[in-house]
Amino acid sequence: MRILMISSEASPYARTGGLGEVTSALPAELVGLGASVDVVMPKYGSITQEAYPKLKDTGLKIDVTLNDKPVHANVWTLMDERGVRFFFLECDEYYDRPFLYGTKERDYEDNAERFVFLCRGAIEMALRQGAKYDVYHAHDWQSALTPVYLRTLYAGESQLQRSAALMTIHNLGHQGIFWYLDMPLVGVGWEFFTPKHMEFHGKLNFLKSGIIFADEVNTVSPGYADEILTPEFGFGLEGVLQDKGSRLTGILNGVDYSVWNPALDNRIAANYTPEDLGGKAICKADLQKRAKLPLKPDAPLFAVVSRLANQKGIDLIGAIMPSLMQRNVQLVLLGTGDRKLEEMFRAFAEKYPDKAAVFFDYDDKLAHQMFAGCDILLAPSRYEPCGLNQLYALKYGTVPVVRLTGGLIDTVDEFDLQKNTGTGFRFAAADPAALEGAIGKALDTYVRHQDAWRRLMLRGMSRDFSWKRSAREYLKLYEKAIADRDVVWK
Fold it and tell me: What's the pTM value of the predicted model, to 2 decimals?
């Protein structure tokens, strides 16, 4: 099976969150199962031959006309050590910028144009190369017009006649909504600007369009697939998703344990295993030193590794910080995002310098050190399509406190002291009191039931969320998409 993934990011080349990790790890697992996988993405300014010596110019040039404007791209390629081939569309006008999607203040004004070009460019690249892909796999709104183009502008191309389209939703909260006058830019004709196709409350909605035109749609956990069918989590698209019926699936994201594994991790102060946890104490002391916190091995150390946004429940943590700081605890926060939340936690760090430290950054090495060095992870998201941090935390013996939503429901089981079961602590209501109650249970267990806490850690470390299981499910979904393509589009 030949698959072309279209994504705006993939680790290590460009990443802002879980999307970049998925489009790095999933292709590798699929290749391991016998599939042929190519990934096409923008060639951002940081993707250079100096940074990636294997990167080569293919000599292939892509030409696309957008709104009577000719746009050109050179195609670069790189085959990684796992057998995944990456293609990069070089168009400096669109992609050689300081950030992927915009500044902290606002999105780039030409994002519609930038990602129309990505979708058109991916298909044009395949046509120019004569590559016949069984499945075009689009990820999130930035590549969501790919299924649209396969069934409209490029519907007559014989090379694409047998190609199916899969649309993966990583976060329904980001849909790529633009003003209606961008329809000529998209280039498919005004007849598709209807509620049944691409129109959304008078605007153009990229993600809705991809959902409508895709043969299959999936999201990144079974729990989230159920939630997005409701008004609370559907962001106005619940009806569109309900109409997909059996063609909407939830497949849980996985973890690349060659990268996220305390027994192998070269970014942390000491390695450790379920059989020998001694290295975790060393990692905790190392993190306390880096955070300039007192070396207190008995103080529970909390981790917050997150984009700083209300979606992630960071404001809930802020609301309980004055109370939490009265306890014998420490907290380290790593992340960037909302300026008001940054200012709030900077103030907490200044007020409680012996108990709180903040790093407003995206620092992959520090993230590894935090999962290894902390005792408890806070993940109180208002909604969470899957969440990867709780999966990393479990593997590193860091116990998660999570809200009952999306993938957090699917991956963290409630601790039960009497039954000796569970892998973390869960709470339902998205309010500070509920979060504080779950934290109280965690601290009580940590302080008063140390043997139970150790068993809790070990259960989490033993859970298997590797990508192999998920990759097999994706292969089945690709086969279903191909079958659906024959039924729906004939």
Answer: 0.91
Pair 322, 432: CB distance under 8 Å: no
Q: What angle do CA 262, 266, 272 make, to 5 degrees?
A: 30
Residues 6+ away with beta carbon under 8 Å from 322: none
Give the amino acid at 304.
V
Q: Can you give the pLDDT of all 490 residues of the chain as single tens digits?
A: 999 999 999 999 998 878 998 999 999 999 999 999 999 999 999 999 999 999 999 999 999 999 999 999 999 999 999 999 999 999 999 999 999 999 878 999 999 999 999 999 999 999 999 999 999 999 999 999 999 999 999 998 999 989 999 999 999 999 999 999 999 999 999 999 999 999 999 999 999 999 999 999 999 999 999 999 999 999 999 999 999 999 999 999 999 898 999 999 999 999 999 999 999 999 999 999 999 999 999 999 999 999 999 999 999 999 999 999 999 999 999 999 899 999 999 999 999 999 999 999 989 999 999 999 999 999 999 999 999 999 999 999 999 999 999 999 999 999 999 999 999 999 999 999 999 999 999 999 999 999 999 999 999 999 999 999 999 999 999 999 999 886 665 5
Q: Two tokens at 253? A: 């994201």
Chain center to CA of 280:
27
